[in-house]
Input
Amino acid sequence: MQELIYGCMGLGGSWSDEPHGSHHVDEAGAAVQAALDAGITLFDHADIYRNGKSEAVFGEVLAATAGLRDRIRLQTKCGIRLNERGLQTHYDLSREAILERVNGSLKRLRTDYVDILLLHRPDPLADPAEVASAVGQLMAEGKVRQLGVSNMSGPQIEALQDRLETPVVANQLEMSLLKRAWLESQVLVNHPGHLDYSFPHGTVEFCTRNNITLQAYGSLARGAYTGVEPESPVSPEAATTELVAQLAAEYATTGEAVLLGWLMKHPAGIAPVIGTVNPDRIRACGDAGRVADSMTRPDWYKLWVTARGSNIP
Output
């Protein structure tokens, strides 16, 4: 089923080691309430977000709000290590790391389980049997209910699935009107332009065929077409921004809902992940499902062609 997901990466303050404060908890509470107002019930985390502070502030909100845990689903990720062992970034899906990181997330989130655990990045040194062993233990202990992945291709998921006793239910990838390689790899088959895209062709089809939900992070194009947020390095493209605003007026909705509706109209059943911490902007996303249902084929193509800056082949 298609749904919107709230991405909690922006919660918790800075990426430094400075502790979070009560105002960060208040900001998280406001974001959570706005997400609920928009009909969102799945909240996306990762152990590394804001050096663990995103999970920590969310855990405080969860603990302070009676009945909230029963109304929502939580997912978190593990597999990336930051600024450890002399490396700025490296990946670790060893058995020990998976168990350690999930237990740490549960402690910060102040919950006994997560509904979905995502493996954050492919680890070239990961042993699929070891991964399966860790996941099996976490599920047997009731700490993880379902498993997903992030940033993986179809063949990578297939190789992992061969060792797992539970199905992979989600794959989180960067997908938006701005980041369109997932889409254009489908169209540019037998065309010289396909060499411009690193997206692994066939991943969308593999996930669709195997009932793996595609979760789209960066789905609002980092504010590029609806007003750039402070942390966004992307400059808006004037023609696309104008078209998004025009369609928002025609569909009696918001620019955010147009961008998300464009994604959700694709038959792969894409579930956008919303990363903004602005409560008004979160609520502005709530109409996306209606837009997806009503958007015409010509309007969908107009958005794609305008964002490309050229006609499709």
